[in-house]
Write a structure and sequence with these properties.
By secondary structure, this protein is mainly β. 0% of the residues lie in helices and 47% in strands. It contains no helices and 11 strands. The strands form 2 sheets. Strands 2, 4, 5, 6, 9, 10 and 11 form a 7-stranded mixed β-sheet that branches. Strands 1-3-8-7 form a 4-stranded antiparallel β-sheet, with no helix packed on it. A hairpin with a 6-residue loop joins strand 4 and strand 5.
Length: 126
Amino acid sequence: QVQLEESEGGLVQAGGSLRLSCAASGRTFSSYAMGWFRQAPGKEREFVAAINWSGGNTYYADSVKGRFTISRDNSRRTVYLYLQMNSLKPEDMAVYYCAAKRDGLARTEIKEYAYWGQGTQVTVSS
């Protein structure tokens, strides 16, 4: 059974930091590229960050570049994906989703991702 389970998000003040994690199991996720996406109320889901299967290549949306860091741990049967978010802004507030592709190449397009978590709320207060 495929499972992508995000950690609980949270409430943070603007300028603060938060780390999200996602536990992926049920497939050989160590071979798959993974990514983070987010959706704010009334807006479409958008790309945040992506990482290839080995962690050697990462991509970021311009809006988070320099503030967010994506990483992964393939060392165990359950693969863990992380998103370290620093210098958070009110506009970062959204539901954040972990996702995985069926191959190892990182991409920014939502349609490329086959597996999705249930999402976790990140709230940033100004």
